[in-house]
Amino acid sequence: MKTKNIFLFAMLIFVLILTSCTEKNPTSVGIDEHNVLTTIKVILKSGTDSTFAIARDTTKVKGKTITEDTLRVTSGKTYLGEVFLYNESVTPIIDLSSEIKELPNEHMFVFSAIDGIESRITINNLNKDGNGKDVGLTFNLIISGSGSAKGYLRVILKHYDSGDKTQAFDTDGDVKLPLIIK
Amino acid sequence: MRRYIIFLIFILTFTQAQEKFQLKGVVVDSLSSKPIENANVFIKDLQRGTTTSSVGEFIIDKIESGSYYISIQLLGYKTVSKKIEVKNNLFLKYSLEEQDIHLGEMHVVGEKYNSELLGIGQSVTTMSLKEIEMLRGQTVSTILEGIPGITLYSTGPSISKPVIRGFHSQRIVVINAGVPIEGQQWGNEHAPEIDPFSPTKVDVIKGASSVEYGNGALGGVIKFDPRNFRNEPGINGTVIGNLFSNNRQLSGSMILDGAFENLPLSWQTQISGRYAGDSQTPEYYITNSGFREVNGSFGIKYGSEDHFVETYFSHFGNELGIYSGSHIGSYDDMLRAIERGKPEINNPFSYEIKDPSQKVNHDLLSFHAVSSELIPGIIDFTYGWQKNKRQEFDGHLKSRVIASMDMTLTTYNVELKYKHLPFGLINGVAGISGNRQGNINEGKSFLVPNHRSYTSSIFLIEQWKSENLGVSIGSRYSKEWRDLYFSKNSNLKPTTIDYETLNGMISLEYLTSEQIQIGATLSSASRAPSANELYSDGVHHGSAQYEIGNSKLHPEKSIAGDLTTHMNFEEFHGELNIFHNRISNYIYLFPRENPTVTITGVFPTFEYRQSDVTIQGFDGSLQYELSEKISIKGNVGIVIGNISNSGELLYGMPGNRFRISPHFHIADFFKLKDVSADLNINHVQKQKTKTSADYLPPPNSYTTIDLFFSGRIETNSSQIKIQLGVNNLLNTKYREHLNRFRYFIDNTGRDISLKFLFTF
């Protein structure tokens, strides 16, 4: 009698357990990689003269990044620069520059000319957020001096928790784009 | 044969002819000196015994001269075992010391119904409720810190995982309510999902235990047991409250246990909560290091002691902030954070949790049936279901909507064990177990591939145990199949891999006398490479390194030898262990010469490699009773890991650890009974690892001091225990090698705690 009771009780619990648990089947997933930055593109324009370069994460998952094309600029000219950010890991491609336009207080681009062209290039006039702090989706790039030179334009995208852009930041992007001065 | 019989008869006649004596005595309570009724008095060597009368007296007649061990036992008192010389009639007086009331442990499960053979010949540390209840601290792992050979691997003040002799995560097995916890082993910042208030007993097996506990138990096993069910009809309960000054933590738990009068049905329930803000180092607050936790459990048991079914459900829910200064987007961020060495801004204390943060929910359901009535022997069946949901949110505002990492790990376990009836001196357990696990990613980044795995194993352990010698031999065969599904963005196609493992162990135990017990174990264990070791290809969050998996990795295989000695003399007792572990194909990260260029900059790059390594060491503890009031305990834990062919020291091993703990039993203080003071002096030596790839050299050695005062108040039906404690009494500034935040900030400073426990 006792054995039978226990057996029934066990069955009841067991059935309850089995019916209460469900599990999804794992499959290959295209997870919502909404915020993943895969591509940074810089375009420089001066009148009708236009040049661009791209840094692209070929793995699309924060992996190895290669650069395509070269920024070719001329001494003495002032260029209007513009940065575009994309997430190319999803279809259709997401324009992440618009997110920075939406949240300008959290982001700031820092530009620098490196590897031999430091003295030849001045970058200023970055566009500002509501607090008057730099954002840098657009900027001016001025070439001075003479002679041809080769180097890189380094673009860092800083991400801040608070709006005053003085605290510690996370780096959302950091690329070196090849640049040639004619 | 006949010769033996004649010899036996001769011996028997000879002993029969010997003179016989009477043994008389009285058993009293050590505190009140009142006689104790119904205590068991037993002479083990003669297999004879009796119980004490209403005036505490006992008589055992007809004892031949000789020396014997006599033991006096009664539930609720500490067992006394003494050696006696019988040459004439004896009168003995024994006083029994009261044991602290063991919550919920109203009954003792006899050897007969216990289907486990906890590794003889291995170092097993069991912590009772009395030890655990006052050690509950900032995490469940802190309970274990006092065990020699155990260290903590932590990520800041609120996340810590246990390390057994240098092994952690996927190389150890953590069991809660009879089911191996699946979730804690995945990453460095994934701590075991267990309510710190729920365990009432912890067993720590140091050393490989794959035969009993399956693959993964390469370095050892930690078993957390919830309360036993109440046996006698009625209801009892406990209320626990803890306060900590360092992170201004408030936490508490409520427990109710009951059993019915006319039905063999018992139940238990528990609800706990913890609420903490920012922790503080001696110099600053660790901003965004608070946490909240709500846990609950419920269980019912139906049946008698040797024929029952029980089911247990528990929920663990936790949300915690991650110190934002440790959140690294690029290698340059890492270098800047290291250079700063402290938070950029001294923020004031706050309970607020901001991103980066993590949310973890773990549900566990276990079903357990034991019967010794169905067939001869004991059948023990366990079924477990658990779901681990982990969400991590990075610092980006938009990520609040979609977690940057969101994984759901569902695991089913089934195990059937059969313990056969003793065959002479031979006992044994045979078992078969199965496990199914599935992992689903829903976040926006992909840490490990989705997978579905099946493991099945079969094992057998036989044990021969005489009065002073025990031998056990066991073996387990396992096979694992794993289906892997990768992100659609990767070039990898779904694939199936399988692993087959065969492990064995042989263990010896020898009691040289009542006081000294020696054990030796030789065991093998293995572990299949995990998904991230095989397939990771990306930046590891938080450590600022690019990690590359190796799909050709083989399972790790370890052969370990353990030698353990237990001493139990009147004034001193202790345990000394030596271990030597050779692991072939040990998987670890090796730095690559060329860094990886990513969209967020350049990262130092590591790849998973395999080498043969040796991990060996020594740990133990000795306790010496200077007087009735003062005792002193010393702990030591030393682990040395080397890569076999190069001799290079293994990265990530704990520094040598020493602890001296004097205990002072002060006195009764008005209504406060058993007032005592405990001091811990902890010293951790600088780790000698030389790894060129590390960002900073190992931190310096440090010494910290903890001080605790405790006492209890008793009334007729209830008891209150109180403890006032201070961890890191001198507010020492230090960094611990096995704390991943050691690159950025100091360890926490002084922490004053007030704990009370009310039992009714």
Give descriptors for this structure.
heterodimer, A: 182 residues, mainly beta, 7-stranded antiparallel beta sheet, 4-stranded mixed beta sheet, 11 strands, 14% helix, B: 760 residues, 22-stranded antiparallel β-barrel, 5-stranded mixed beta sheet, 42 strands, 5% helix
The sequence of SSEs of chain A as H and E is: HEEEEEEHEEEEE
Helical proportion of chain A, percent range: 10-25%
Rounded to an integer in angstroms, the radius of gyration calculated over CA atoms of chain A is 26 Å
Taking all Cα atoms into account, the compactness measure Rg of chain B is 28 Å
Cα-to-Cα separation, first versus last residue of chain B: 63 Å
| Count of helical regions of chain A | 2
Q: What class do helices, strands and sheet pairing of chain A give?
A: mainly beta
- Total strand segments of chain A: 11
Percent range for helical residues of chain B?
under 10%
What would you call the shape of chain A?
elongated
Note down, in words, how this protein is organized.
The complex is a heterodimer of chains A (182) and B (760). Chain A has 182 residues and is mainly beta. Helices cover 14% and strands 43% of the residues of chain A. Chain A contains two helices and eleven strands, in the order αββββββαβββββ. Chain B has a 22-stranded antiparallel beta barrel. Chain B has a five-stranded mixed sheet with strand order 8-13-14-11-12. In chain B, strands 3-2-5-6 form a four-stranded antiparallel sheet, with no helix packed on it. Helices cover 5% and strands 55% of the residues of chain B. The interface between A and B is large, with 55 and 71 residues.
Brief sketch in words of this structure:
Chain A is mainly β and 182 residues long. Chain A is built from 2 helices and 11 strands.
